[in-house]
Amino acid sequence: VKINVAEVLRKELARKSWQQEHVAIGAATDPYQPAEGKYKLTRGCLEALRGASNPFSIITRGPMIVRDLDVLVDASQRASVSVTFSIPTLDDEVWKRTEPSTAHPRQRLRAIKTLVEAGVNARVGMAPILPGISDRPEQLREVVRAARDAGATGVWANLLFLRPGTREHFLEHLAEDWPEQLPLYEQLYAGKAYLSAKETKPLRTEVSSLAQEYGIRDRRKLRLAPPPEPEQLSLTV
C-alpha cells in the first residue's frame, strides 16, 4: 500500500496530542522541486494544513508556488500563513554560478507580486549572501529595491553557512568559479559552519537600513487573515 507524505501529514494533524504548532516548510530543501509539477506532494501537504486550519510558512525559490495560490488564499483565511522567497542576489553571473537549474530571481519577484496582490503574506529572504561575491552594497540595494517594487511584505538577510557535506561541495565549486575568494572562505569558515555576529550583524544592519529607506512593510490592499478568536466571557454571579 502506497501512502504519500500528504496522507501521513493529515493523520499527524488529526492526532489529539497535536496543538496546531506552526509548521515550517522548506528549511531543509525546496518544496517546489521540478518533480512537484507531476506529483503535487507539496500541494497535498498545503491542502492538509488548510484542512486542519494549521499555521505554516514556506521558504522556496520556486515560482511554481503560484499554481497553489488557491490553497494559499484559503489557508490564509483559516490560520497564519507566510511565504518567503529566497532571493540572495539579482546579479546574473552570481545566480548562474551559484543557483544552477533554479528559476531566475526576477521570476521569483513576479511570483511575490502575484501572491501579495491576492492577499497572501509574501516576503524576501536574502540568503545565503556570499561574502566577497554577493555582499557589495550595490548588490544588496538592488535586491531590496526590487523587493519593494514587487510588494514584498518584508525582507531579511543572512550570510552563507557551511555544514559538513555542503562545505566540501561549495568550496570545490568556489575554487573553480572564484579561486581568488578561496583563502577568504577557508579563513572565515575555519572549524565552523556559522559565522559569528561580528560578520553577520553589519550585513543585517545594512539590509535593515535599506528596507527602512525603501519603506518595505506590509502594504497589501487585501490582507488575508484568520478570524479573531472568540472572546471568553466571564459571568459574574
Task: Itemize the secondary structure elements and their pairings.
Blueprint lengths: L4 H9 L9 E3 L10 H4 L1 H11 L4 E5 L8 H8 L4 E6 L5 H7 L6 H13 L4 E8 L7 H14 L4 E5 L6 H12 L4 H7 L8 H17 L24
Parallel strand pairs: 1-2, 2-3, 3-4, 4-5
Helix pairs in contact: 1-3, 3-4, 6-7, 7-10
Folded structure, characterized:
The longest helix is centred in the last third of the chain and has 17 residues, at 197-213. It is globular and about 70 Å long. The chain has a five-stranded parallel β-sheet. Helix 4 links the parallel strand 2 and strand 3 (81-86). It has helices at residues 5-13, 36-39, 41-51, 69-76, 92-98, 105-117, 137-150, 166-177, 182-188, 197-213; strands spanning 23-25, 56-60, 81-86, 122-129, 155-159. It contains ten helices and five strands, in the order αβααβαβααβαβααα. The chain has 237 residues and is α/β, with parallel strands linked by helices. Helices cover 43% and strands 11% of the residues.
